[in-house]
Write a structure and sequence with these properties.
Elements lengths: L1 H4 L5 E3 L2 E4 L2 E2 L3 E5 L6 E5 H10 L5 E5 L10 H7 L4 H10 L3 E5 L9 E2 L4 E2 H10 L12 E3 H19 L9 E4 L6 E4 L21 E10 L18 H30 L7 E4 L4 E5 L4 E8 L6 E9 L4 H4 L2 H7 L3 E6 L7 H11 L4 E5 L6 E5 L5 E4 L4 E9 L1 H18 L10
């Protein structure tokens, strides 16, 4: 602070910051909560200290654009002028150093009232706390590459869940982002807690991804003028539906077949297509099975339900791969876990009600055939039956985000709320 104060008097004038040496543009802002005072640090001064420190490696985490940190709109405008060029030049030239920023220049870092943090900051903290297993490499290592990839994956869905209108925030990084740049080894943190919710790649084999979409039966390609809309559901109407939906089913399978071959480099013999003409078709790969199925809506016989699913996962590592994300994008909105043992629903409901925790919302039917849970601070509705644990998101999400929500809820139930009635382990 003493060194800073000798550099000149700072004055806010007309929304601009001046020193005795002229307009100060390249600054980092930090708010001192007491009295609302603000410290401004010139980037070149800060980077100079890092350069002179002799440290063999260092990492900077910069929430560059968080309006909630700023006292006035005028200060935000100055803060927003922070250019990436100085940071990029410095970190690209500094061996074994990295800078991760909340957003690209010109974007904002958006907060979440529910998370009580900036969204980027929340996911950053979760990663270092060991609460983001998909941000890790080899189970325990948080690396520059894995952390940045996690932030790029996790921030956009949280934005969509927080704001009704579209917001743009793209986590940005420069410097050494290699997989052997270990920011933290979380092995000690991840040691079992309460016998707890530990990430297991083996759990992925019990998971399936899915999405159901409703459409008007008359919009199917095989529907012809003069066809009558069914007024009930029966074996005959299901057969009629399968016939007029066959063209779309074939097109769906063909398109996915091409994407799978391109992304996974599958050979002809690696992919088996099953299409019996009964309103469903599947692609069986060495890693998983994809199925598309059409059926009549139980609520309205003039509507159809498209059900797309990835199941029978044999190679968990492939589900975490870039190739899987490339093929399926944001196709699914639900992840379902099939536990190795039956879930005692009555015991689960009794345990939640016994807690009396306002952060948990519970609903169930009188016959106790299902229950629904929501957990404050975690997106997604949880539906539990005796044989399945399902998490449904409001909008389709990338597969890694759906997995992240599954493990976050698993930890919340066991580590935070001490609810052990769901058998997540083997």
């Amino acid at each position: 602070t003493g060194d800073l104060m000798t550099r000149g008097i700072l004055d806010i004038e007309g929304g601009r910051l001046w020193t005795d040496t002229g307009l100060l543009r390249s600054v980092l802002l930090t708010v001192l909560i007491g009295g609302g005072a603000v410290i401004l640090l010139q980037i070149d001064w800060l980077l100079g200290l890092l350069r002179e420190s002799g440290a063999p490696r260092f990492a900077m985490f910069l929430d560059s654009g968080e309006r909630g940190l700023l006292a006035t709109p005028a200060m935000w405008e100055i803060y927003g002028d922070l250019a990436d060029s100085e940071l990029k030049e410095f970190f690209d030239q500094s061996e074994r150093s990295v800078c991760l920023a909340a957003c690209q220049p010109g974007e904002e870092s958006w907060p979440s009232g529910q998370l009580q943090h900036g969204i980027w900051a929340h996911h950053l903290i979760e990663a270092f706390a060991g609460n983001a297993p998909l941000a890790l490499e080899r189970g325990t290592l948080l690396t520059a590459r894995s952390l940045q990839k996690h932030l790029q994956t996790a921030v956009p869905p949280s934005l969509r869940a927080t704001y009704a209108e579209a917001k743009r925030q793209s986590p940005w990084a420069c410097g050494d982002q290699s997989s052997d740049w270990v920011l933290a080894d979380l092995g000690e943190i991840l040691k079992p807690n309460k016998g707890a919710a530990q990430f297991s790649v083996g759990q992925v084999t019990r998971i399936s991804f899915g999405r159901k979409q409703t459409a008007d039966l008359r919009r199917l390609a095989g529907f012809r003028k003069g066809y009558r809309i069914p007024d009930h559901n029966s074996t005959a109407t299901e057969a009629f539906l399968a016939k007029i939906a066959d063209e779309e089913i074939r097109g769906d399978i063909a398109a996915l077949h091409d994407r799978l071959r391109a992304a996974f480099k599958f050979k002809r013999a690696d992919i088996q297509i099953s299409h019996s003409g009964d309103g469903a078709a599947s692609i069986i790969t060495p890693h998983f099975t994809y199925t598309v199925r059409v059926s009549q809506s139980a609520d309205d016989s003039s509507e159809v339900v498209w059900n797309r699913e990835v199941k029978d996962i044999k190679a968990p590592a492939q589900i975490l791969s870039d190739a899987f994300a490339e093929v399926f994008g944001e196709m699914f909105d639900t992840v379902e876990f099939s536990p190795p043992a039956q879930i005692p629903l009555a015991e689960l409901i009794d345990r939640v009600e016994q807690l009396g925790d306002d952060r948990l919302t519970l609903d169930y039917d009188p016959d106790i055939t299902w229950c629904k849970l929501t957990i404050e601070g975690i997106a997604g509705e949880i539906r539990v039956t005796s044989r399945a644990f399902e998490i449904a998101q409001r909008l389709p999400q990338p597969p890694l985000v759906l997995l992240q929500s599954f493990f976050a809820i698993q930890r919340a139930l066991i580590d935070t709320h001490d609810i052990g009635q769901i058998p997540f382990g083997d």
